[in-house]
Amino acid sequence: MEKKKKYIGHFISFIKLLIPSLVLLFIIRGFILIPVPIDGSSMEKNLSQGDMILMEKYTSIKRFDVIVFQLPDGEIYVKRVIGLPGDSIRYEDDQLYVNGEKTAEPFLKNNKSKQYDTNPYTTNFELSDLINQDILEEDSYFVLGDNRRMSKDSRSFGAVESKYIIGKAVFVYYPLKHIKFIN
């Protein structure tokens, strides 16, 4: 009888820990860190088809952050922020210019080193050619995939309004060989 009471006491203690843990897990998974699958090759070599990432909703978006957004057509995209509200963006001879200044893109190093032809990795463009504006509007972001030759991004669908941004990608958790923080 004493042994049975001991087991019941352990079981009740376990339940007292389990319920708050599950509630906390539900809150974190549902509202803070949300899993998102990578579908497609537009972010290759940094994110791969089939990777599972964690996205968080509550930090501000900065240049070169990887964001998750859903356009009005219902498609969910994962792309890198190149232009912030108020920026002018252009590419010339495979070089990014933000507000007229050369801007390095170190996250493209692996992608560019694998290219053996003479074509530019990112084709020339000016923001005004793509969205008929010289600078991005107050709530608009210009996004590109890291795999520039194979990405459907702001060059085809225009700037992304902040109301369509779901969150910022922060961590790859699956497959295990790809585990890393997303910078």
UniProtKB/TrEMBL annotation:
<dbReference type="InterPro" id="IPR019758">
    <property type="entry name" value="Pept_S26A_signal_pept_1_CS"/>
</dbReference>
<keyword id="KW-1133">Transmembrane helix</keyword>
<dbReference type="InterPro" id="IPR019757">
    <property type="entry name" value="Pept_S26A_signal_pept_1_Lys-AS"/>
</dbReference>
<feature type="transmembrane region" description="Helical">
    <location>
        <begin position="12"/>
        <end position="34"/>
    </location>
</feature>
<dbReference type="Pfam" id="PF10502">
    <property type="entry name" value="Peptidase_S26"/>
</dbReference>
<protein>
    <recommendedName>
        <fullName>Signal peptidase I</fullName>
        <ecNumber>3.4.21.89</ecNumber>
    </recommendedName>
</protein>
<feature type="domain" description="Peptidase S26">
    <location>
        <begin position="12"/>
        <end position="174"/>
    </location>
</feature>
<keyword id="KW-0378">Hydrolase</keyword>
<dbReference type="InterPro" id="IPR036286">
    <property type="entry name" value="LexA/Signal_pep-like_sf"/>
</dbReference>
<dbReference type="InterPro" id="IPR019533">
    <property type="entry name" value="Peptidase_S26"/>
</dbReference>
<keyword id="KW-0645">Protease</keyword>
<keyword id="KW-0472">Membrane</keyword>
<comment type="similarity">
    <text>Belongs to the peptidase S26 family.</text>
</comment>
<dbReference type="InterPro" id="IPR000223">
    <property type="entry name" value="Pept_S26A_signal_pept_1"/>
</dbReference>
<dbReference type="GO" id="GO:0009003">
    <property type="term" value="F:signal peptidase activity"/>
</dbReference>
<keyword id="KW-0812">Transmembrane</keyword>
